[in-house]
Design goal:
Elements: H1 2-9, H2 19-33, H3 40-47, H4 51-57, H5 61-85, H6 90-105, H7 110-116, H8 121-144, H9 149-172, H10 183-197, H11 210-216
Helix pairs in contact: 2-3, 2-5, 2-7, 5-6, 5-8, 6-8, 6-9, 8-9
Length: about 220
């Protein structure tokens, strides 16, 4: 009976850290200090783990950086796209994506931290993959809305450069931007969307995008 009570009183063994736990911790380190901040011993201390836990999952530091960058793409690109795709109306998908991207651009320093370290080979490759994926998705949104392919691509690029510019201003010179939740910010956001969605006078309206056309048939 005593032995049984002693066994019951033993603290539960701590769950083993996963590769994702390490990748998330590395992303936090990148946010705080760039890629240079990704170091095994400080991360192990932060996670309450040993270096052995790290080497159980990763061969070296480069492998951890690669996993962290993959995790960034998963959370901040594929995850966002999945959320936006739940909206059936292509115009509302664009509004939702652009609005959420602009609102989060100044509160999440991770992307700016990655841009600052874009000369790092792994970061450069990840930025290229993610940028190409995002611009391709934006192009598809404008194509679904009925814009011709070349114009859809241009508008997707314009939307993405507006997002990157806003993010840069928000972290470097936030005073030039209107405060969020203010009437000025809503007007700024609305006019940016109007530029992106309004057809030029010499551009014929091709009718409903493919998504809407399929639903109408």
């Amino acid at each position: 009976m005593v032995q049984r009570q002693q066994r019951q009183q033993r603290p539960e063994r701590k769950a083993r850290l996963t590769a994702q736990d390490w990748a998330d911790a590395a992303l936090t380190a990148i946010t705080e200090g760039g890629v240079a901040a990704v170091a095994v011993e400080p991360l192990a201390a932060r996670l309450g783990a040993t270096k052995g836990s790290f080497y159980w999952h990763f061969a070296n530091r480069d492998a951890l950086i690669e996993a962290a960058l993959d995790r960034w793409a998963e959370l901040h690109t594929e995850g966002t796209i999945s959320e936006v795709e739940a909206e059936p109306d292509p115009k509302e998908r664009i509004r939702l994506l652009f609005t959420e991207a602009i609102r989060s651009a100044t509160t999440d320093p991770l992307e700016v931290a990655l841009l600052v370290t874009s000369t790092h080979p792994q970061v450069a490759a990840a930025l290229r993959r993610v940028t190409e994926r995002r611009v391709a998705y934006l192009r598809q949104l404008f194509t679904d809305l009925g814009f011709p392919e070349p114009e859809a691509h241009r508008r997707g690029l314009l939307a993405y450069t507006a997002y990157l510019g806003h993010a840069q201003l928000g972290h470097v010179t936030p005073s030039v931007l209107p405060p969020e939740e203010s009437a000025e910010f809503r007007a700024y956001l609305g006019e940016a969307l109007e530029v992106l969605l309004t057809r030029h006078a010499n551009t014929p309206d091709p009718g409903p995008g493919p998504d809407l056309a399929r639903r109408e048939t």
